[in-house]
Specification:
Strands 1-2-4-5-6-3 form a 6-stranded antiparallel β-sheet, covered by helices on one side. Helices cover about 20% and strands about 40% of the residues. It is α+β, with helices and mostly antiparallel strands and about 150 residues long. It is globular. It has a single domain, classed as Hotdog Thioesterase (Thiol Ester Dehydrase, Chain A).
Length: about 150
């Protein structure tokens, strides 16, 4: 099933807020299988003030965080996680950064569910700009009571 969520709907699901919400739209969601989210990268991002003032590059760790937030939306929607739970990033494996992400880029994050056991979600995530792979990783997330 394809599902599209806008930023207002995403903010009803995730606890993140400015300046740390790093997904603007969910453009595809197949419950139990995969999700695709988009982040519009602008020069107004607060991290560009220090990373780097004369050569702005989105920090790799924030690309991973953006992918993790997309994965959180997947789990909440697919498994109907209650709003009395909070998402925890549980691990990162095989992270690779292939190309810098800069202001003006549209970051497309595609996550495929690898496994879900005892509430631990494992995803294979890839991030693209204009069809070019810019980052990839295996991400793990879980939920706990607030």
């Amino acid at each position: 099933m394809a599902m599209v969520l806008n930023i207002q709907e995403i903010m009803k699901l995730l606890p993140h807020r400015f300046p740390f919400i790093l997904v603007d739209r969910i453009v595809e969601l197949e419950e139990g299988k995969k999700i695709v989210g988009v982040k519009n990268v602008t020069i107004n991002e607060p991290f560009f003030q220090g990373h780097f003032p004369d050569h702005p590059i989105m920090p790799g760790v924030l690309i991973l965080e953006a992918m993790a937030q997309v994965g959180g939306v997947f789990a909440i929607v697919s498994d109907k996680i209650d709003d009395d739970k909070v998402t925890y990033f549980a691990g990162i494996d095989k992270a690779r950064f292939r190309k810098p992400v800069v202001p003006g880029d549209v970051l497309r994050m595609e996550l495929e569910l690898l496994t879900c056991r005892r509430g631990l979600y494992c995803f294979k995530g890839k991030a693209y700009v204009d069809g070019t792979l810019v980052a990839e990783a295996e991400l793990k997330a879980t939920f706990a009571a607030r």
